[in-house]
From TrEMBL, chain A:
Keywords: Cell cycle, Cell division, Cytoplasm, Cytoskeleton, GTP-binding, Nucleotide-binding. The keyword Transcription regulation does not apply. It comes from Cynoglossus semilaevis. Gene3D superfamilies: P-loop containing nucleotide triphosphate hydrolases. The keyword Protein biosynthesis does not apply. Residues 54-326 form the Septin-type G domain. GO terms for biological process: cell division. This is Septin 9a. PROSITE patterns: G_SEPTIN (PS51719). Pfam families: Septin. GO terms for cellular component: cytoskeleton. Belongs to the TRAFAC class TrmE-Era-EngA-EngB-Septin-like GTPase superfamily. Septin GTPase family. It is found in: Cytoplasm, Cytoskeleton. GO terms for molecular function: GTP binding.
């Protein structure tokens, strides 16, 4: 009987033993051999291997007036001396005359996962008397990175893996005034939120009590909304209900009130990062004290990949479309477009 | 259930890391692979497999066995008369498979009619054209303005079925030993008179593989291996591997192991490389053998077990294709075959454009006269730039040539 079945139905699944072959969606047939398992979930392991081999890249920009603890915060985030001040021993404390852009890269490794971290510092931002257009060098830098990536992409002989120098995330430091956003903050974030993911943080939050902090945060959120500023995580990029739920919780908490420190103190028998004052020790990683841990988790432990994805699939794509259209209109006219028309595109 | 766990995901990420926070050095980006993981699981994967070879070599059965599908349920097999006028078709079957939460959109591209006609000249052309079309489509999508949901229909792997009924008597005392074959290899290159050492790859096999080896990953498969004894299989495999090398056919190469992989992995990797072509047997029927149920073929003289590695290489092939090398197959397609196509495409486009340009002064508005398969608007700028660069290069080369020619002229006159 079996013989007939096998000879007659060579091309079709056997109907004599239906529970075996028919179960292609995870049902297990009896016995030690699993007739229904192909093994496609092994592709995740393959991807993982490949990712581990290749390593990851992350480019974070920090923007804010001098003295707001930007470098310290970066050191705290990555638990090593990654900031410009730590690396350049001869870093001058003088405020530069214009906004400079300084990138420092580090290769860091954790549990076999390798990452090339680039911290982009912007000394001089907001420090001048007249701060008009101080965001321009920053915008230019961000767009230059997009441009470099685009050039590499349209090359005839492309590299296997295009080096990614695009700014994935821009942490904007708000001084802890306790009142509301300053015009400079609004101007900057309004422009930059269109080209890069902005994560606003309240710097040096140890000068605010909890009530002051909550009030300040509420004001900031209101002002961001009133000015149409979309900070990360942007509402329109939530992919599904699950994402939306997680991101709503985050949106209710931003901007994170952070305190940075790279010094350890003894607290209750444990050594913790903190700031020691006469009235107590502020524990950086204690969520009752400040929201550093939330920021770290957002940036590193849960949303890092998402931040990179939004940069590459949304911000970069927008830049690319703009560039291609721009070029096209410039080409279609026999005369070049007047200067102001072109720059209007970039802003 | 899913929702509540994700509800707490963000909060718990903070609260449950106390142990790790004690570890002074732990930052937390070691979770990156998992973050990437999560995204890919949501999106799902896709894979396109092409099967090629003469009819009757068990292609459909093998595909169904590999992926536990029944894609060919409603197939009607043509008889000989109907096949005389048939040309090589390209058919596509798509099936969505899900296992342990991972979704795979599998596309099988079949080539019915291949090698069936009386005159099979260039029957691989439609196959090559199909592969090129997929590349072209992807190139267009990639160069376009809206790149949100690009569908990847490029062929990631081509299983080429080699008939086991090759030439050359391989049993009895007439059979050359393995050593003999090896030592005669060099002589073969110069004279092919020995009847015992006839080729196992037919001319059609060689031509097909040579036409496609730079467009797609070719994995040769020795079909219906249950017609061969183990020693026959071994010899045949070696011969075929030699012939492949001899004819300069570039089949898919398994990537080399890293030096830091464990021994078991290296051993498996070595075995894999030495199993080409995979001697396969396919079956969709489950038969009873010694009290246990196995997938196999029932003969009066015994049962061939498909998933028994002593019987055939089915398990090796499946593991390679699905469990270990699927990602690499896609990577090689993307990084090598597609990039080659793209480079060639751009170069031939610029050559065409330069020719047109030299023939009649074109204005920019008549850009639509160019046979460029790109989105009008966006990428004209890229090609414009490339054209300009190529123009400059051409001009420089021409100037250089002119200079050399002048030098030669003066030298000649000097004599």
């Amino acid at each position: 009987m079996n013989q007939q079945a096998s000879v007659g139905n060579a091309m079709m699944p056997d109907t004599v033993v239906s529970s075996g072959v028919g179960g292609m969606y995870g049902e297990k047939a009896g016995g030690p051999v699993d007739f229904s398992y192909v093994g496609i979930d092994a592709i995740l392991e393959q991807m993982r291997r490949k990712a581990m081999k290749q390593g990851f890249e992350l480019n974070i920009m920090v923007v804010g007036q001098s003295g707001l603890g930007k470098s310290t915060l970066m050191n705290t985030l990555f638990k090593s001396k990654v900031s410009r001040k730590s690396v350049l021993a001869t870093a001058q404390e003088k405020i530069p005359k214009t906004v400079e852009i300084k990138s420092i890269s580090h290769d860091i490794e954790e549990k076999g996962v390798r990452m090339k971290l680039t911290v982009i510092d912007t000394p001089g931002f907001g420090d001048q008397i007249n701060n008009e257009n101080c965001w321009q060098p920053i915008m230019k830098f961000i767009n230059d990175q997009y441009e470099a990536y685009l050039q590499e992409e349209i090359n005839i002989n492309r590299k296997k893996r295009i080096p990614d120098s695009r700014v994935h995330c821009c942490i904007y430091f708000i001084p802890p005034t306790g009142h509301c956003l300053r015009p400079l903050d609004v101007e900057f974030m309004r422009r930059l939120s269109k080209v890069v993911n902005i994560v606003p943080v309240i710097a040096k939050a140890d000068t605010l009590t909890l009530e002051e902090r909550d009030f300040f945060k509420k004001k900031i959120r209101e002002e961001l909304q009133a000015n149409g500023i979309d900070v990360y995580p942007q509402k329109e990029f939530d992919e599904d209900a699950e994402d939306r739920m997680i991101n709503e919780k985050i949106r209710e908490m931003i901007p994170f009130a952070v305190v940075g420190s790279d010094q350890e103190y003894q607290v209750n028998g444990r050594r913790l990062l903190g700031r020691k004052t006469k009235w107590g020790t502020i524990e950086v990683e204690n969520i009752a004290h400040c929201e550093f841990a939330y920021l770290r988790d957002l940036l590193i432990r849960t949303h890092m990949q998402n931040i990179k994805d939004i940069t590459s699939s949304i911000h970069y794509e927008m830049y690319r479309v703009r560039r291609l259209n721009e070029n096209n209109t410039a080409v279609a006219h026999t005369n070049g477009l007047p200067e102001h028309h072109l720059t209007a595109h970039e802003m | 259930m899913e929702n509540s766990s994700s509800n707490n995901r963000f909060r718990s990420a903070v609260f449950n890391h106390d142990d790790e926070d004690q570890d002074k050095e732990y930052v937390g980006f070691a979770t990156l692979p998992n973050q990437v993981h999560r995204k890919s699981v949501k999106k799902g994967f896709d894979f396109t497999l092409m099967v090629a070879g003469e009819s009757g070599l068990g292609k459909s059965t093998l595909v169904n066995s590999l992926f536990l599908t029944d894609l060919y349920k409603d197939r009607k097999l043509l008889n000989a008369e109907e096949r005389i006028t048939q040309t090589v078709e390209i058919t596509k079957h798509t099936v969505d498979i899900e296992e342990k939460g991972v979704k795979l959109k599998l596309t099988i591209v079949d080539t019915p009619g291949f090698g069936d006609a009386v005159n099979n000249t260039e029957c691989w052309k439609s196959v090559a054209d199909y592969i090129d079309q997929q590349f072209e489509q992807y190139f267009r999508d990639e160069s376009g303005l809206n790149r949100k949901n690009i569908q990847d229909n490029r062929v990631h792997c081509c299983l080429y079925f080699i008939s086991p009924f090759g030439h050359g008597q391989m049993d009895g005392e007439n059979a050359p030993s393995v050593d003999e074959i090896e030592s005669l290899h060099n002589r073969w290159l110069t004279k092919r008179s020995s009847k015992r050492l006839q080729s196992h790859l037919r001319p059609l096999d060689v031509e097909f593989m040579k036409a496609l080896h730079e467009k797609v990953n070719i994995v040769p498969v020795l079909a219906k291996a249950d017609t061969l004894t183990p020693s026959e299989v071994k010899k045949k495999k070696m011969k075929i591997r030699e012939e492949i090398e001899q004819y300069g056919i570039k089949i898919y190469q398994f990537p080399d192991c890293d030096s830091d992989e464990d021994e078991e992995f290296k051993q498996q990797d070595l075995e894999l490389k030495e199993s080409i072509p995979f001697a396969v047997i396919g079956s969709n029927t489950v038969v009873e053998a010694k009290g246990k149920r196995v997938r196999g073929r029932l003969y009066p003289w015994g049962i061939v077990e498909v998933e028994n590695s002593a019987h055939c290489d089915f398990v090796k092939l499946r593991n390679m294709l699905v469990r270990t090398h699927m990602q690499d197959l896609k990577d090689v397609t993307r990084e090598t075959h597609y990039e080659n196509y793209r480079a060639q495409c751009i170069q031939s486009m610029t050559r065409m454009v330069v020719k047109e340009r030299n023939r009649n002064k074109l204005t920019r508005e008549s850009g639509t006269d160019f046979p460029i398969p790109l989105v009008t608007g966006g990428t004209d700028s890229e090609t414009e730039k490339l054209i300009r660069e190529k123009d400059d290069e051409l001009r420089r080369m021409q100037e250089m040539l002119q200079r050399i020619q002048n030098q030669m002229h003066t030298k000649r006159d000097a004599y």
